[in-house]
Design goal:
- By secondary structure, this protein is mainly beta.
- The protein has a domain of 209 residues: 7 Propeller (Methylamine Dehydrogenase, Chain H), CATH 2.130.10.
- The protein is built from one helix and 29 strands.
- The protein has a five-stranded antiparallel sheet with strand order 1-12-11-10-9, with no helix packed on it. Strands 4-3-2-29 form a four-stranded antiparallel sheet, with no helix packed on it. It has a four-stranded antiparallel sheet with strand order 5-6-7-8, with no helix packed on it.
- The longest helix has 4 residues.
Amino acid sequence: MRYRRLAVLVAASLTPLALSAPAAQAATPAAPYDFNGDGRADLAVGAPAATVAGKARAGAVSVVYGSSTGLKSSTYKVITQNSPAVPGSAETDDAFGSSLASADLNRDGYADLLVGAPGEDVDGDTNDGTVVIVWGSKSGLSGARTLVNHNQRENDRYGKAVAAGDFTGDGLPEVATGSTGMFELNFVSGPFTKTGPFGGGNGGSLADGLPPFSSSYGVEYLSAGDVMGRGFSNLVAHGRVKGTDDAVTVLVDGKIGNFNNWLVRMPSGYVSAVGDIDGDGYADVAVGNHRETSADPAGAKGGRVTVRYGGPDGVDPSRAPLTLTQDTPGVPGSAETGDAFGSGVSVGDINGDGYADLAIGASGESTGAATTTGSVTVLFGSARGLTTTGAKTYTQNTAGVPGAEEKSDRFGGRTSLLDHSGDRRADLVISAPGENAGDGAVTSLRGTATGPTTTGATTFGPSTTGIGTTGTPGYGSILGG
């Protein structure tokens, strides 16, 4: 298997640079997406097809800040490659905002934002790709730098996927990125500083593994969580099976220097979310596969979501995978061709009972004559695991949900579960990237002791948070969280 490990970044003279000096350490690192350190998660919304300064599909990100009443769309920040202090410049097809992740990288008490732009041209290399770090502060996001690409010559579309966390158990953050080319999965090691040199890293190819990944698709999606209960995170990596476009998903242990030596096969899908559904100290993995079996043998009529419960060896062998479709008893609705159940998945504790819950988007769900209007189903966690008891489904025709069902809205294209109000209950955020002929929109439902409530529900689109609607920006195609 092709594999590269870098102890430090080496200059053109082959003189090794010293590792970054540790940044000033906050007593407790900020939780992901808490960019201003107020104890409330903020929301990052990607619009990778947004036009910026006349450049089509240059891409943009809106960050909407949390408040005591939840997301406050009047308090936002727009980030593009034309923003002050953001490296580079907005160019056609950069697709800035194609991936998002967050962690307190410099351990200053404020979460930082990572933004992938896989279409960025670098040093004459078309679609080489880049990742930008935008720094958190007391006043919110401010200042930025480009994340090093240790394997620039071997990779393309660097940043098509991104995740952040402690993947090695050394107490310091790392950044994992997906790309195409020779090394599809790359790590950059901390500590991180705003101006100093980056640490080392490593990269590996999954193209010769079992199962083999397609290097032309590369690693397309990443999620992270403490699946093995060791106090630091594993990675869930998604790609396509070599020679096909069928989904393949594996669990990666970043603590192993050559991570290809230990991969756990997971249910095949295109997106995933990680959280402790049964409260046993091991995070569980929910994998969404929205495709039909005619398009992907791991799919299902109308799409499916599969949950693997975590354990010390990656998965708990004593528990069978839990497969969910809209034909599963207790899941509202019925499985119909094209529903795309599993197009978006997220995990978080909505009702504050200590067990993570699961939100599943079905962006292709159709109602009456209107097609691909979309829906979201919420299932609740318990000590026994995920249960269908009390399952709830939301559409844009649900009483209290703003807007109305329209053709091709794709409500449920992405979902997010983060605590935006600081009440220790996750709020449900739902994107509809097809809203208003591709402008896109985001809807937020507050979490309560009985689940998401439509009382006080809010919705906003690109214009509300500073992104233009020229072309089809697809606001909400990506959600941070």
